[in-house]
Here is the input.
Amino acid sequence: MSANNKSLKHRLSHDTDREFGGTLGAICIPIFLPLTVLFLICTSRSPQAGLLQWPPALPSTDQLWDPLAPVLLLGWIALHAFLYMLPLGKVSEGLVLRDGTRLKYPINGYHDLCISAVLLLMLLGLGVPLGYLFELLLPLAVSAIGISFLLSIYLYIRSFWAPLHGLALGGNTGNPVYDFFIGRELNPRIGNFDLKYFCELRPGLIGWVVINLGMLMKEVELRGSPSLAMILVNAFQLLYVADALWNEEAILTTMDIVHDGFGFMLVFGDLAWVPFTYSLQAAFLVVHPQALTWLKAAAIVALNGAGYYIFRKSNSQKNLFRRDPTHPSVAGLETIATATGKRLLVSSWWGLVRHPNYLGDLLMALAWSLPCGFSHLLPYFYVTYFTILLIHREARDERQCQAKYGLAWDTYCRRVPYRIFPYIY
Ligand code: NDP
Here is the structure.
């Protein structure tokens, strides 16, 4: 074994601060979160929609299983895999890997969204009852959970054939339960097909807005036309998904792609958690219609607009700064030098709080819940969960930045004392 490989092996087994509660978390989360998805869907359609109620009796097998669901889901994934491989859009390179190479990624997620939209409109034109997704929601979620487990097992097994430099530093503790959960291989690929990059933004994220559309069509079936609340929820979330796919290249520098292995945590998050819990507001509105005045709607649109503005401006500013620090729109900003040669922005958006992009995201999350009124807690599940997720993610990122930048990071934290919410946190 070469000296390089020896030192890498040492880092793989020792650079591992276990996250998400270590082994206990890795046992509990894969049991608890899938049950939570099913609980939330059942609750969203129950008359009382009470989040604090005792979990309702487990649905019957008929309600949980429909052979159409796995067929639809596998067909959906196959469609996006096909679109991924079409020679559309540009090809970008990811960051430099530990072996000095860079992987290539097709930037055609937005094309995928547009083609999917055209196909859906054609299906609607042909009279396909998209509202049936409401009835199929539980079986679809069960199938997505099953597929997440199967894919994670495949990823875990194949990681033992991956080269040492292709393994994620945090996912190789030697504890099979933890490594299965957190992910061993950094960029698992079949030929040029990158499994993690594909799952991150396509089947689940586009699936989310398709489920929303299905809920809107169900409302049309039930009440003749979509409500203002349903239109707002659909429009806000479509804007969010379209924005993510329009800016797909930015994902190449995120923690998920650069740092985390591809294991159950990301697979389940991408394929089951996002589409089936992020669409809860739309599912809730089917059974619990809400009257919304134009004035309230205008205030909610303004809140979503403000959140989106902060989110997009701050993300774009940092991405541009990382790609081209000499660009005229970022060259004049105040920065701090670090020992790595990279600089940290300390003015404009990144001088307001240390994660302005999270602040904007959370304002939007609140705007997605408000159209559902104040009679139930369930529509606020997303904003509550997302606040916890982003606070946890912020802490993980701070740890990594502190390890990367040391004293320079401490200086940044002194200059910009608030993490997400100005003067609060
Ligand atoms: P960020 O885009 O915030 O990236 C964090 C990285 O940015 C740091 O590791 C550091 O990396 C760099 N950085 C931090 N501070 C500065 C600074 N002052 N100047 C320059 N660079 C800095 O992380 P995420 O990937 O967590 O978030 C991306 C977006 O995705 C966010 O808007 C977030 O809200 C959203 N998101 C949404 C989720 C959802 O489920 N809807 C889930 C997770 C995220 P380096 O220095 O190495 O470049």
